[in-house]
Amino acid sequence: MLKIWGRSNSINVQKVLWCCTELDIPFHRVDVGGPFGGNRDPEYLRLNPNGLVPTIADDGFVLWEANAIVRYLAAKHGMGTLCPEDLAERADADRWMDWQMGTLWANFRPAFIGLVRTPPEKRDEARIEAAISRTAENWSMLDAHLSGRNHVTGTSFTMADIALGATVYRWFDLSIERPPLLNLEAWFERLCKRAPYKASVMLPLS
After folding, report:
1. What DSSP assignment string belongs to 43-78?
2. pLDDT above 70 coverage of the chain, percent
3. Contact 181, 143 (CB under 8 A)
4. Dihedral angle at the C-alpha atoms of 153, 163, 65, 92, nearest 10 degrees?
5. Quick one: 176 exposed, middle or buried, by C-beta within 10 A (0-12, 13-18, 19+)?
6. Angle between helices 11-22 and 66-77 (to 10 degrees)
7. pTM value?
């Protein structure tokens, strides 16, 4: 059985849990990271030298980095669904997954950490506001892309929706001012109707 190390409220662990739930992949999850600790233990570092979550083991194959794990599981268990068979369509999904990590989350993370994990008296309000502004610009780009599309790559739900969908939940759950982005909001509403999304992602932030 697939083994997953990582706490269930981590954005990156949630991507993997959501992917598994969409594909009906049985798994055993072990709480690691955050208040559970264990991610700096020598035995965990032998699996994942970054000391981050998630990490998976699948029939002896160990893999870390959430988007890489989602790609691997989607290709193994969801070829033609979560993982597009057409090379160009798959590259499109890959592009948005890379954008989620390298651009969107990089810009949004200071705001998320500042508002969710930092006591009010220790917050850098200017940094948080700048992060929210940059993230809003990023979302406006996706909003424009979603015009006429039900999902990130078109008509079908793919692994790109998983990477971005875990992030958009945090954007809409924070108590912040957001610009009206109707296509983004409609896409988020469609995600919220998916049972695996509710079960894996729509949890209290921490």
Report:
1. HHHHH-TT--S-EEEETTEEEESHHHHHHHHHHHH-
2. 100
3. yes
4. 10
5. middle
6. 0
7. 0.97
Model confidence at 186: pLDDT above 80? yes
How does pLDDT run across 56-96, given as a tens digit for each residue?
999 999 999 999 999 999 999 999 999 999 999 999 999 99
**Domains of the chain and any CATH numbers:** 2-77 (3.40.30.10), 87-199 (1.20.1050.10)
| The residue to which tokens 């971005």 are assigned | 164
Predicted confidence (pLDDT) per residue in 120-166, tens digit: 999 999 999 999 999 999 999 999 999 999 999 999 999 999 999 99
CB 160 within 8 Å of CB 153: yes
Smallest Cα–Cα separation from 159: which of 74, 43, 101, 58? 74
Residues 163 and 170: beta-carbon distance below 8 Å? no
Q: Are 191 and 197 in contact (CB under 8 A)?
A: yes
